[in-house]
Design a protein that fits this description.
The protein is of the alpha+beta class. The chain is built from twelve helices and seven strands. The strands form two sheets. It has a five-stranded mixed β-sheet with strand order 2-4-5-7-6. Helix 9 runs antiparallel to helix 10. The longest helix is centred in the middle third of the chain and has 54 residues. The protein binds adenosine-5'-diphosphate. The site of adenosine-5'-diphosphate (ADP) has 21 residues, from helix 9 and helix 10. Adenosine-5'-diphosphate (ADP) binds next to helix 9 and helix 10.
Length: 388
């Protein structure tokens, strides 16, 4: 115990030993070679931890940064032992030297343990070559995907455009037929014409809905969209349905988003018109639209007091062409909610619903305040710019 306290009390005391120059027979060349080499190693060992610290602070998301810092401390202590070895030629602080060596030993063991733990994680990290080939593969996949997407969009456009023309002819001829020969037709004949006209109308709606669905995501430019004005515009355009449903709409103040206006209009138009359409008979319809600020995103809600949706259909209704009712009960194409989901997915948000059959349904959707589509991501991602 005495030795222990004495050691620390006389940590920098050099009176027990001669300076290293006087310990043995050193030639100037030999001594200065020793000193110069030790100082060089010390300088290099001091630079390594500085580089490591800078790397860890600049490079965000380095796995297990503590291993890097521990490794830096280990190298720095190794450097300190070399510095002391050089100074021993004039200043024989053997106690301090022993203490620094002891600390170096402890930190070395800790570094070894940390490295063993880090090993499995490090072995899973990609090398820049592996990363490069994966990036190339992904870029190729994105290119292929966008090409087939474009083809599909083109196909949907051409098909619907080309379908629209004969459809128009059919509707025109049906109208002509009715105008010219309507008087001469019996009840069954007129019924046939009416059914054909209604079917042609449904086909037009289906084609238009499909066109809207296929166009989603084709425009990248965003603008500032005041959601209050947008909802007011939708309600104005659907006044007749609002009146028919004897509906009151409770609209709370909504935020302004930076997004594609048509996309947002499609989403809220589908949700609002569904709220009006799937209403309970013999009850005044009530819609409530509100938004909550969730920090990085807004959460919107469109609630109705309509027929509701059974829990087993919560996911299904977002799939294209999935309808829970026959066309005779409620008209529709089964594309509206799929379009909403496609838009919200592209915006990096989420859409879901909560409902009680016979009481009402609330659709929730989150939209990030800073919407980043894949296209924008590719343009701003630092990894992509690094590889350019
Ligand atoms: P559509 O209304 O043209 O049938 P949607 O994709 O908009 O197609 O909706 C899919 C299905 O989800 C609807 O057929 C309907 O059964 C159900 N649904 C959608 N909105 C509501 C709602 N607000 N209340 C009850 N059911 C709904």
């Amino acid at each position: 115990m005495d030795q222990f306290t004495d050691f620390f009390r006389r940590l920098t005391d050099t009176s027990d030993w001669p300076p290293r120059w006087f310990c043995g027979n050193w030639t100037d060349f030999h001594g200065w070679l020793y000193i110069f080499s030790d100082l060089t190693v010390w300088l290099a060992y001091m630079a390594i931890p500085l580089i490591l610290v800078r790397f860890v602070t600049l490079k965000k998301g380095v796995p297990m940064p503590s291993v890097f810092l521990l490794f830096g401390a280990f190298i720095m202590l190794c450097g300190a032992t070399h510095l002391l070895d050089a100074t021993m030629f004039w200043w024989p602080a053997y106690r301090l030297n022993a203490l620094i060596r002891f600390l170096t030993g402890v930190v070395s063991i800790a570094t070894v343990i940390a490295l063993i733990r880090y090993f499995n994680e490090a072995i899973g990290l990609r090398t820049s070559g592996e990363y490069e080939s994966e990036l190339q593969f992904r870029q190729q996949a994105v290119q292929e995907l966008s090409r087939s997407n474009q083809e599909l969009q083109q196909f949907a456009y051409v098909a619907s455009h080309d379908l629209q023309a004969p459809l128009k002819t059919i509707v025109n001829y049906l109208t002509l037929l009715e105008a010219k020969y309507g008087e001469q037709l019996d009840v069954d004949g007129r019924k046939l014409i009416n059914t054909s006209t209604a079917a042609a109308g449904r086909m037009r709606t289906l084609i238009n809905d499909l066109l809207d669905f296929s166009r989603v995501g084709s425009v990248a430019e965003f603008e500032s969209v005041d959601m209050n004005a947008l909802i007011a515009e939708i309600l104005e355009e659907h006044q007749e349905e609002v009146k028919a449903a004897n509906a009151t709409v409770d609209l709370e103040p909504l935020p302004t988003l930076t997004a594609h206006r048509t996309d947002l209009k499609q989403v809220f138009q589908n949700l609002i018109t569904n709220g009006l359409k799937y209403r309970l008979p013999n009850a005044a319809t009530r819609l409530k639209i509100y938004a909550t600020d969730e920090g990085k995103s807004y959460r919107f809600a469109v609630a109705d007091n309509g027929i509701g949706i059974a829990p087993q259909h919560y996911e299904r209704v977002f799939q294209i062409f999935q309808r829970l009712h026959s066309r005779t009960d409620y008209p529709g194409t089964g594309i509206g909610l799929a379009t909403c989901k496609k838009i919200i997915d592209i915006y990096g948000g989420q859409i879901w619903l909560d409902s009680t059959p016979g009481v009402g349904t609330t659709f929730y959707l989150t939209i990030p305040k800073n919407i980043k589509t894949v296209q924008q991501y590719v343009q701003t991602d630092p990894l992509h710019s690094l590889n350019r």
